[in-house]
Amino acid sequence: MENPWRAVMCGCVLPFESTQIADVEVIVMDDSPRAEEASQFSQELDIRYFHVDRCTIGEKRNMAVAEATRSGAEMICIWDDDDIFTVDRLRQQVSRMVARPASCSSIQVAFVAVLTSGILQRCKGLPLPFENSFCFRRSWLEGRPFSNTSLGEGNVIFEELDDWYAEAQPISGEELPFLYVRTQSSTAPDDALEPYPVKSMLIGGQNPRVDVSLLALARAFRRERFPELPAKALEIARGALRRVMQEDLEKMRKDINSTSQLAPVYWDALNLEKAWAFGGGVPEGSLNHALSAKVDVPEENDVADSDGLIIETDVAMRLIAKALSDF
After folding, report:
1. 191 CB-near residues (< 8 Å, 6+ apart)
2. Tell me, what's a Pfam family for it (predicted)?
3. pTM listed for this prediction
4. CA dihedral sign, ordered 69, 71, 76, 80
5. For the residues 217-224, what does the mean pLDDT come to?
6. Terminal-residue alpha carbon distance, the chain
7. CA–CA distance, 86 with 275 (Å, rounded to integer)
């Protein structure tokens, strides 16, 4: 799963009057030394596998796009095998493209799992769109191939555009979190990612607040939106979030800088049901259908306001502690 030698692409045949994805075809371009056995792949998906000579990432992307084009896919989604997306990534990304409408979409690289050091990092800002999260209409890329390189191979697509934000329709990491996995072979430099450590979901200062973006990642784990994989990156992220949540809870219990007042908002962000509403999104999915729309709230829910927000600090902290024990 975390072999950086491979690039995976999905071709989607989509009825544009709907936000539901119809047929999904998976095209695998593999330039690792040894070919995989067909029996290793899921029989539930339409998978076409190609074992090719060692080549650049750009070349593999072009080969995969060409195969998706031959299949008549209307939407093409890039899916590198060393990055971990939520199980509802296709539905979330395509629904936004249909609603806006947009020809291309990219997802902000907001969370980085570093395998070499075993740490979870955040990323500042949104640099040029990273090709590993592209989803685009087939007609949009015709005649504009990726460059023959393994670093910034998608930059050539946006060279003549004055406003790539408008063209790429970026989605924030808060809306659609995923784990960008860094290995010894990763090509993206630090000055592009601008990483910094994950320390807390509480932001201090005179007007303390919660880090909604980081809590969105915690919510994705809480709702079981990430696939069930024996991946070190998932272990790193889950462990880091669990540690931060424990430290935050201790701060709120001690009421350092009045952080305890943030407990109701903190709890709400772990269970937010309306995050999907922005920009044409659909309700967050999950491997566990019971968790797709929301996470069940214990009986203390009777102290919530009309919007479902827990309004009593002590109750919110008890619920956070319960969530942490199940995390």
Report:
1. none
2. Glycos_transf_2
3. 0.86
4. negative
5. 93
6. 23
7. 15
Contact (CB, 8 A) for 84 and 107 = no
How many CB atoms are closer than 10 A to CB 205?
Answer: 7
> Distance between CA atoms of 299 and 310, rounded to whole angstroms?
11
181-217 confidence digits (pLDDT tens) = 988 877 677 777 778 889 999 988 778 899 988 999 9
CB 67 within 8 A of CB 10: no
Q: By CB neighbour count within 10 A (0-12 exposed, 13-18 middle, 19+ buried), where does 111 fall?
A: buried
What residue type is assigned to position 39 of the chain?
S
Structure tokens given for 76: 């093409």
Q: How far apart are CA 294 and CA 290, in angstroms?
A: 8
Tokens of 140: 């949009």
Q: How many CB atoms lie within 10 A of CB 201?
A: 22
Model confidence at 166, pLDDT cuts 50, 70, 90, reads confident
Task: Give the position of tokens 């601008």.
Answer: 194
